[in-house]
Amino acid sequence: MIPVIALVGRPNVGKSTLFNRLTRSRDALVADLPGLTRDRQYGHAKIEGRPFIIIDTGGITGGEVGIDGYMAEQSKLAVQEADIVLFLLDARAGLTAVDENLARELRTFGKPVHLVVNKIDGINAEAAIADFYALGFSSVNPIAAGHGRGVNVLAEEVLLPLASDEALEEAERERTKHPKIAIVGRPNVGKSTLVNRMLGEERVVVFDMPGTTRDSIYIDMERREKPYTIIDTAGVRRRGKVRETVEKFSVLKTLQAIEDANVVIMVFDAREGITEQDLSLLRFVMEAGRSLVISINKWDGMTAEQREAVKSEVNRRMVFADFARMHFISALHGSGVGDLFDSVDEAFNSANVEMSASKLTRELEIAVAKHPPPTVKGFRSKLRYAHPGGHNPPRIVIHGNRTTKLPESYQRYLIKHFIKVLNIVGTPIKLELKEGK
Ligand code: GDP
Ligand code: GDP
Question: Which residues bind GTP 2 (predicted)?
Fold first, then answer.
């Protein structure tokens, strides 16, 4: 499972600054989903190719966070969800009574706690961190989140050991086997109705439904003699039975399911339109590099005008996900649900597309011959050859000179070319630009 890191500490110690540095985003990818307080933000970080989920606590409203040494409810929830805690402190303010109370409370959770002493820029770091050893934690890490100093060391020494190479490789291997579909979306968009429909598709054999209430439920099934695993984040409710109380929506559960899947079916509610929360979740799917199938649900009983309005909104606001197939469905009545499997298959096959160095290099040459890279400040990048870098999503490694100077627009042009010649649908592809040789 993807490691989960909670950032806690008094207001203004620099939690959000560190969060933004680790997730390399200016705003949280997933913020403010209904069902939780607006004070917990979830972000996706990649450290040396390994994925992490970072939870920032507080920093949005600030006021009610960390008051008088009592951890705010949302900080507690974040710590409970996390594998490790980064406890942030302000080197300039020195050790405060609030910090001491927080330290005491943090110990009660039994989670590994690492001190992160922030704002060491322009001061004597050694002297500044000395105080904090008094809190009794052995891992004390000086950083300047604002400038980035120490952040790489922190990432490498504290975070990276949580992600073993074996686990990463095992997860990648698992993802190439058969479609593992995460059904995600905001509460009430129709996820569980859709899961039930998908299971109710003809000739589906459901093998087992393990899982606890806390975790997503993994359902192995077969359709037209092909195996699938459905990751049900909503909690499946058997058909014909009385509905059970709707489980509390959990952002973490959703994000973990996305990470663990190879194809995500993201469900939208046509009647609600596209909300900010939908877009945050969609961006997380993109960050994770997952294949994507979009399903706009509750298409039944809508007028032609309403449908047009939804379509135009979707086209306008979701251009950044235009690689994905889009389905307008009714989970309730079942219309369009069978077709989802076709798009899932297509996206899964695209994510695992066979690529060879010779084909990629040939296509690179063709693309460059058609449109050479533009000159930037009098120089032109020289792209020499390409080879495959992995699957889920497909990665193409390009070697040459001044490749790092290649403009974004030209990279997009190359991506478009590869997508076309490799017949890729429903999955993003990533370029890795390498200098020299
Ligand atoms: P949060 O409330 O814990 O999330 O804190 P913020 O990330 O919002 O940061 C609080 C203030 O500290 C902001 O004004 C930041 O610019 C500043 N800050 C954050 N990191 C550093 C740092 O490394 N050095 C200095 N000097 N200031 C920082
Ligand atoms: P979840 O929270 O995302 O799992 O959503 P549910 O599957 O529990 O559905 C929420 C509500 O929307 C329920 O009342 C469903 O009956 C209703 N619903 C789900 N799919 C459809 C649909 O395609 N059309 C209509 N009209 N209602 C739907």
Answer: 185-192, 232-236, 297-300
Ligand 2 touching residue 332 (CB < 6 A):
yes
C-alpha 77, offset from chain centre: 20
Residues with CB under 6 Å of ligand 1 are 9, 11-17, 59, 118-119, 121, 144-147
Q: Was 187 annotated as part of a binding site?
A: yes
Positive or negative torsion for Cα 406, 146, 52, 249: negative
The pLDDT tens digits of the residues spanning 101-159 come to 889 989 999 999 999 999 999 898 888 899 999 999 999 999 999 999 999 999 999 99
CB within 8 Å of 249: residues ≥ 6 apart: 33, 34, 35, 36, 186, 187
Helix residue ranges per DSSP H, 225-378: 251-260, 276-288, 304-317, 337-351, 357-370
- Comparing CA positions, the residue from 138, 143, 110 lying closest to residue 15 is 143
CA-to-CA dists, residue 322 to 159, 269, 286, 416, 426, angstroms? 33, 18, 11, 12, 9
pLDDT (0 to 100) of residue 359: 96
Q: Each residue of 369-427: pLDDT tens digit?
A: 999 999 888 888 899 999 999 888 999 999 999 888 899 999 999 999 999 999 999 99
| Of 200, 208, 206, 238, nearest in space to 222 by CA | 206
Bond into 393 cis (ω within 30): yes
| 204 CB near ligand 2 (under 6 Å) | no
Residue 26 class from Cβ within 10 Å (0-12 exposed, 13-18 middle, 19+ buried)?
exposed
Residue 208, marked binder? no
10 among the known binding-site residues?
yes
70 or 318, higher pLDDT: 318
Q: What is the DSSP string of 129-194?
A: HHGGGGG--S-EEE-BTTTTBTHHHHIIIIIGGGS-HHHHHHHHHHHTTS-EEEEE-STTSSHHHH
Quote the ligand 2 centre to 232 CA distance (angstroms): 14
Nearest CA residue ID for atom 11, ligand 1:
12
